[in-house]
Amino acid sequence: MPSQIFLPLLRELATAYQSFEIYSSAHIRSLGLTPPQFDIVATLGNTQGMSPKELGEKTLITKGTLTGVVDRLSDKRLVRRIASPSDGRGQIVQLTRQGEKLFAHIFPAHLAYMERAFAPLSPTELAEITDSLRRLCAIFTDAHNEKIKTP
């Protein structure tokens, strides 16, 4: 079997993601939320709310998990569901006043926490890594779209 030159990249990408998750999740849990709950609160922050479909597209949460996470946030009185003004059958999930206060506290705190991890990188290094990740994302998106076109 020929050597797969991209395998080291796959290992580093997976390891970097796992390290990021461990670091980020530890702080999120210290704020009293699970990572999916934080993801929803952060995504809804500074918005008028969004449909469950939009929320699922903008977060890393699968549709099956999304309902349960929203239910738990609703039980904590951090989000509410209201009828969609544009679709009588649809709903909008939005932060409550308590959820907005929580967002105003935890989002800047988490950004500051994450900033400490990135502090050793220069602005040039941050830009280079960002550009590389964008390119990698585009490669996977193009490959996925090509696969859909040609089954």
Short recap of the structure:
This protein is mainly alpha-helical and 151 residues long. The chain contains 6 helices and 2 strands. Helix 1 packs across helix 5 (97-118).
Protein described:
The chain has a domain at 122-151. 68% of the residues lie in helices and 7% in strands. The protein has helices spanning 7-30, 35-44, 52-58, 63-75, 97-118, 123-149; strands spanning 79-83, 91-95. Helix 1 crosses helix 5 (97-118). The chain is globular. The model has no long low-confidence stretch (mean pLDDT 92).
Separation of the first and last Cα atoms:
26 Å
- Using only C-alpha atoms, the radius of gyration works out to 19 Å
Q: Which structural category do the helix and sheet elements fall into?
A: mainly alpha
Helix content: 55-70%
Strand order of the largest sheet: 1-2
* Morphology call: globular
Tally of alpha and pi helices: 6
User: Strand portion, in percent?
Assistant: 5-15%
Mean pLDDT: 92
Number of strand elements = 2
Write the element-wise H/E pattern from the N-terminal end onward.
HHHHEEHH
What are the segments in which pLDDT stays under 50 over at least 5 consecutive residues?
A: none
Biggest beta sheet summary: 2 strands, antiparallel
Which descriptors apply to this entry?
single chain; 151 residues; mainly alpha; two-stranded antiparallel ribbon; 6 helices; 7% strand; globular
Topology:
Blueprint: H1 7-30, H2 35-44, H3 52-58, H4 63-75, E1 79-83, E2 91-95, H5 97-118, H6 123-149
Antiparallel strand pairs: 1-2
Helix pairs in contact: 1-5
